[in-house]
Design brief:
By secondary structure, this protein is α+β, with helices and mostly antiparallel strands. Among the domains are: 52-160, Immunoglobulins (Immunoglobulin-like), CATH 2.60.40.10; 171-259, Immunoglobulins (Immunoglobulin-like), CATH 2.60.40. It has five helices and 17 strands. A hairpin with a 2-residue loop joins β16 (237-245) and β17. The protein is elongated and about 125 Å long. Residues 72-145, 162-257 form the Ig-like domain. Keywords: Immunoglobulin domain, Membrane, Signal, Transmembrane, Transmembrane helix. The chain crosses the membrane at residues 268-288.
Length: 331
């Protein structure tokens, strides 16, 4: 005997087909989604965010500007997780406060949601507040308050995730050795760390499970260490460590230089060659000087030969007039 499930199980064989259709139409269908989802999405976005992040503590930052200011004022804000953020700009003009207009921008985009702004005047100071919940990476960036009037002054809040610190100078090591690359975060605790190496202009993730050349570890959550074993010259290049936070990612670059043992020996060999050449020149000079000292007669012999040559030439010249005299006497 067949057992029926679903709407048809509640319909007797004699019931009209119309009743069966009505029951099917009134039953929830999986393709339409969970009713809880539909009721959740029907809430206004602001109420949804306030309900989801109602336990966040308020984090307030302010910037002060005066009419005498001649340059923009900036303030850096570091966030690693969702926050209820209040940005406050205080402006004290040198002229009429009523002629000053306040606008806010995120990067280069004008913010027009007046529900999150609150601008008040207390004495001769204008307070402009922008309060919102920051919960994803798209909201990170630069938020600026502009005071249009005297000098169009601007105050900017630079909101970013914590920065990563590594070794600024290239790390130099040698073929066959092992080395450790280290990155750390001083202002937060990343959710996870990832190491990359360069393949031309592309960053390639390092998978320690597929390549036993690398070992990734760290003693604390805010640091990571990459150990590279059995170094080859081709292991040199650019390495990146990337930290992931709830509000975005931050990365640092480390340069690794792997040298062969011949590289440090080249200057040493060049110095040795220069020393050998210099010693050879000195020895040749010494041999020549010693030989000259041991053969002093060579110079005298040379002088005697020169003297004999001169004497012979003088004798010939002296005999020539004698022969002429004898020839004249005979005649």
């Amino acid at each position: 005997m067949l057992s029926l499930t679903g709407p048809r199980a509640f319909v007797a064989p004699g019931c009209p087909l119309v009743l069966l259709c009505l029951l099917v139409a009134t039953c929830p269908h999986r393709a339409e989604g969970d009713p809880a989802d539909s009721s959740f999405t029907s809430l206004p976005v602001r109420e949804e965010m306030m309900a989801k992040y109602s336990n966040l503590s308020l984090e307030s930052h302010n910037i002060s500007l005066t009419g005498e200011s001649s340059s923009p004022v900036e303030k850096n804000i570091t966030l690693e997780k969702p926050s209820d953020l209040e940005l406050l700009c205080l402006f004290t003009p040198s002229g009429d406060l009523n002629s000053v207009n306040v606008t806010w921008k995120k990067d280069d985009e004008l913010l027009e949601n007046i529900d999150v702004f609150n601008t008040t005047k207390v004495g001769n100071t204008l307070y402009s507040q922008y309060r919102f919940i920051i919960f994803n990476s798209k909201q990170m960036g630069n938020y600026s308050c502009f005071f249009d009037g005297e000098k169009n002054l601007r105050g900017t809040f630079n909101i970013k995730v914590p920065s990563i610190h590594g070794k600024n100078k290239p790390l130099i090591t040698y073929v066959g050795d092992s080395t450790v690359l280290k990155c750390e975060c001083h202002d937060g605790h990343p959710l996870n760390w990832t190491w990359y190496t360069s393949n031309g202009s592309v960053q390639v993730p390092i998978d320690v499970h597929k390549n036993d050349k690398y070992v990734i570890n760290g003693s604390y959550a805010n640091e990571t260490r990459l150990k590279v074993k059995h170094l080859l010259e081709e292991d040199g290049g650019s390495y990146w460590c990337r930290a992931a936070f709830q509000l975005g990612e931050s990365e640092e670059h480390i340069e690794l230089v792997v040298l062969s043992f011949m590289v440090p020996l080249k200057p040493f060999l060049a110095i040795i060659a220069e020393v050998i050449l210099l010693v050879a020149i000195i020895l040749l000079c010494e041999v020549y000087t010693q030989k000259k000292k041991n053969d002093p007669d060579d110079g005298k012999e040379f002088e005697q030969i020169e003297q004999l040559k001169s004497d012979d030439s003088n004798g010939i010249e002296n005999n020539a007039p004698r022969l002429r005299k004898n020839e004249s006497v005979e005649q």
